[in-house]
Structures are given as structure tokens and as C-alpha cells.
Design goal:
about 170 residues, five-stranded mixed beta sheet, four-stranded antiparallel beta sheet, 3 helices, disordered N terminus
């Protein structure tokens, strides 16, 4: 029997407290059980979430990404970039909601972004739909170099303060 580090995390009947190894076994088992109960493989479960990516390399200090092959959302948490391909256009957004800097979430079923804090909603091109925010998602300047998108993380455009810059921060693939 291990000695409880926290008296609130013990079995009241026998005084047993879980150690790190027991906790990890339980967490892994619960995760596997949840996947089995959903009748889904880990690959199926990951398809429900936006792709988490890392920039493959840098171009003049800025992250670069391969042009997405199809419509969808990719999130690079390291660089705080959301890369979106939508209707033959590619956009790069700041990961944070313009209202209070909470990380935005992508809802595939509704094809829209939402702020989990105050529920502001945005179209895939970053246009504001509803909620507490007062402007569209902030876009980074983007350029195309061959088959890659270069995101200038030092050049962010706010739709209310720089409408022209915001409107032109897009790569058209057609």
C-alpha cells in the first residue's frame, strides 16, 4: 500500500492512494475503452479534429506550409497560425479570437470557427457571423512560393483597422 500524498485522494475504506503508474494505466485504459465504445479506430477519431501541423521550414524567418490538397483547417499551435483552404482560396489566421484572445475552435459539422469563451462565430474565410466579437478573425499576410504558403507572422491585419490589408491577405489557387 502506498502512502497517500494527498489525503483527499485515498480510498476511505483502506487508505490506498493511486501513484503515477496506476493513474497512467487508468487514463490509458479509459481512453482505449472510449475509442472501443465509439467503434472507432484512433485514425477515425483523429479525423474528427482539425489537423495539427508544424511548419516544415522557415522562409525569411516565417513559417511555411505545403498548399493543402483539399478544403479544411490546419492548426499550428507553435506559431499560433490557423491555415485554411476554402473554395480554392488559402488564408492564414491568428489562432486567437479577436475579442479576448481565446484560442478558436473549428467545427467541421457547421463549417465555422467558434470562440469557446463567448461563442463568437466566424465563416471559414474569417468573416464575423455573430457573438461578442466586433470584427472578423485577424489574418496574416500570405505569399505563395512554389507549392508552399509562407505566412508572415509579423504582418497581421485586422478587418476594422486595415480592411484593404485584410481583404488582400489571401492566396487564390485558381
Amino acid at each position: 500500500m502506498s502512502t497517500p500524498a494527498d489525503p483527499d485522494v485515498t480510498c476511505s475504506a483502506c487508505g490506498w492512494a493511486p501513484d503515477r503508474r496506476h493513474f497512467l494505466r487508468f487514463a490509458i485504459g479509459a481512453s482505449i475503452g472510449a475509442l472501443i465504445s465509439l467503434d472507432a479506430s484512433p485514425a477515425d477519431a483523429s479525423a474528427l479534429l482539425p489537423a495539427l501541423v508544424r511548419s516544415r521550414r522557415r522562409h525569411a524567418g516565417n513559417p511555411t506550409y505545403p498548399i493543402p490538397a483539399q478544403d479544411g483547417v490546419q492548426i499550428d499551435r507553435d506559431n499560433q497560425v490557423i491555415l485554411v483552404r476554402w473554395k480554392e482560396s488559402v488564408f492564414a489566421f491568428n489562432l486567437s479570437c479577436p475579442h479576448q484572445n481565446t484560442a478558436l475552435r473549428w467545427h467541421e459539422s457547421d463549417t465555422q470557427f467558434e470562440c469557446p469563451k463567448h461563442h463568437s462565430k466566424y465563416q471559414p474565410d474569417g468573416t464575423f457571423i455573430s457573438g461578442r466579437a466586433t470584427r472578423a478573425m485577424d489574418r496574416f499576410s500570405v505569399t505563395r512560393v512554389g507549392n508552399e504558403i509562407v505566412v508572415n507572422v509579423n504582418s497581421m491585419h485586422k478587418s476594422d483597422a486595415d480592411a484593404a490589408g485584410w481583404s488582400t491577405s489571401v492566396i487564390h489557387l485558381t
